[in-house]
What we know:
The complex is a heterodimer of chains A (114) and B (342).
Chain A: E1 14-15, H1 22-30, H2 42-46, H3 48-52, H4 57-66, H5 70-75, H6 84-88, H7 95-108
Chain B: E1 4-8, H1 12-23, E2 27-32, E3 46-47, E4 52-53, H2 54-65, E5 71-74, E6 78-83, E7 88-92, E8 97-100, E9 102-105, E10 109-111, E11 128-130, H3 131-140, E12 153-160, H4 176-190, E13 195-200, H5 210-219, E14 224-227, E15 232-235, E16 241-247, E17 252-258, E18 260-265, E19 267-269, H6 271-280, E20 307-309, H7 319-339
Parallel strand pairs in B: 1-2, 1-9, 2-5, 9-20, 11-18, 12-13, 12-18, 13-14
Antiparallel strand pairs in B: 3-4, 6-7, 7-8, 10-19, 15-16, 16-17
Helix pairs in contact in B: 1-2, 1-7, 3-4, 4-5
Amino acid sequence: MEKFGFTISKGRQIDYDVNDRSVAEYIYKGEPSFRICIECGCCSATCTTGNFTRFSLRELQILLKRGENEMVRTQIKKCMLCGKCTLVCPRGVNTRNVIMLAREAFQKTPTDAV
Amino acid sequence: MGKQIVVIGAGVAGMEAAGQLAKFGYEVSLIEKEKSSGGHINNWYKLFPDRRNSSEVKEYLDSVISGKGIKMIAGTTIEKVTRGKNHFLLDTAGGEQLTADAVVIATGFDLFKSSRKEEYGYGIYDNVITSADLEDMFRKGSIKKADGSTPGKFGLVHCVGSRDEKVGNLYCSKLCCVTAVKQAIEIREHLSDSKVFCFYMDMRMGGAYYEELYREAQEVWGVNFIRGKVSEASESINKKLIVKVEDTLAGRPLKMELDMLVLMAGMEMSEGGKQISQMAGLNTGENRFFLPADHHFGSNKSNIKGIFYAGTCTAPMNITETISHARGAVSDVIDYLNNGVS
């Protein structure tokens, strides 16, 4: 087909009702403290990975809650599990376990199913 | 004859002030535009943060004003305020003239009229209701959509009529956040299969035990909080509501279908208060509430000697603050009548 140099942009809107939130549900079950995050960003501020690469646990966890899983699937591998985020969380979220469970959930689901 | 005090408004502030003043031996008249006392509290179901029944506070207030010789004049308004040398003459719509050595204004607040935020569709779409409508449903024990079915998915919109230049209200009504949290929990209690989403700009949980209630809503009741103000609501062909919001923490626009949208109406200066401010020459602030003589140490005093303020006619307040503020007014009235301090 002739290429004219035009493309159709993929919408940026989060379509909440269509999205699959099974990964978030999986984490809620295994780590109920995942619910009480208030998105303060303390975890991301202290995170060594986040200081050197594009990685924000705060952002990743909100994306999971909205069912925007694809970016999380690759990003979450960057974490080195040092646990500083858990130490600084003012709400007492077990962030390290959130990451472990997210990885677990992604392992159980093939890429194209999420 | 004892000194006479007229208290205008028999809501929480007016009842508390009238009762305490009567306890000190003053002759108190309590004017109320509605047929009975209590004000907004009559319309609430349960109160934050402890979710006690609102009727308990009403019972307390009734006990405060009963048996103390308070002259209750309900179902009328003040039509005219005349200043004498050391007293006031107040004419009621019922044709009565009252003499007062001091006046306590406790005209309270009106809820923001949510139909003014047309983009949310109150009065246009069937299942857009206000926080006050939801309280009414709780009191009746039945939460139903307009077609009689049970809603499953709720959206609660914070800051309706507050922090919004478009409606002329720059201030925060400060109680809508905690009301949303309380109502979110109550929806989950009433309908265990329901899902609740709160759309907020900031969570302003400033009162004692408000933050704890917020945490409980997340932890125990699974209430979802999405940071972003709903820009508009529309209705789909199958009568579902669709909201558009920016999920500002994800940095992405978001859309969602809902069965019911609840608007957290803010607090505004009451119409009755506005009329009294004009007829008596009382100062009002940029937020249109009565402007106290001093923000820090004169919040019960007005620009007119002998006229005092109690409660939410000066600013949004919760019930605890309203009762304290009313007691402050009592203290200032006594200081004025006994020592001439104004």
